[in-house]
Amino acid sequence: MQLTAEIRTEHGKRPVRRLRNQGMIPGVIYGPEMEPVSIKLKKQEVEKFIHALSEAKPVTLRINVDGKTQDIEVFVKKVQIDKVTDEIVHIDFYKPAMGHVMRIEIPIRVVGKPIGVEKGGIMEVLHTELPVETLPGALVEHIEIDVSHLNLGESYHVRDLKLPEGMKVLLPADEALVTIIVPKGLQVEEVTAAAPAETIEPEVIKKGKKAEETEEEKE
């Protein structure tokens, strides 16, 4: 994905408000081996790609600096949205550096139909993103987890993940990511089905005793 950006010299509330009225979105680029750089992007271009933006997906910013075009690979760190207008008001971009650990959230992609769901259970996804620490070279756009083996009442935990080398999850190992809930109705059916079996045996025993007593009386 590529976005065009320009160096921004406007700072402060009024200049930034004027910038937004001109159809531009203010932003900033920062990273471990650079000074923060203020930029501005075309609102129309950003809105076109906003649904595809992800903290784990690299973005190429094409910036014109002193008459020279420069491409910088960055990651979207934060998107600020106006609570009233629901419009983008600011974007933070992070420029990684080799050898420096990044803290980001990677989308989780759940695949497979759990055995428990086929038996009437309900799948509940507890985490849609995974907070991790990783080196730039180990970064992936999403983490895929196969839940097809999960039965009723079972869960997929952090410890079950298969991660790229150099990636560390910032959650406890026993944290559940996906779980298969057993509906109450399903539990009731199981108990109801088992109940008659418990009452049949005593009745048979009573009949047996009566039969024995009858035989004794005849003798």
Automatic annotation (TrEMBL):
One record GO biological process: translation
Domain Large ribosomal subunit protein bL25 L25: 3-93
A GO MF term: 5S rRNA binding
Keyword Metal-binding among record annotations: no
Signal sequence residues: none
Quaternary structure, from the entry: Part of the 50S ribosomal subunit; part of the 5S rRNA/L5/L18/L25 subcomplex. Contacts the 5S rRNA. Binds to the 5S rRNA independently of L5 and L18.
Family membership: Belongs to the bacterial ribosomal protein bL25 family. CTC subfamily.
Family annotation (PANTHER family): RIBOSOMAL PROTEIN L25/GLN-TRNA SYNTHETASE, ANTI-CODON-BINDING DOMAIN-CONTAINING PROTEIN, RIBOSOMAL PROTEIN L25_GLN-TRNA SYNTHETASE, ANTI-CODON-BINDING DOMAIN-CONTAINING PROTEIN
Protein name: Large ribosomal subunit protein bL25
Gene that encodes the chain: rplY
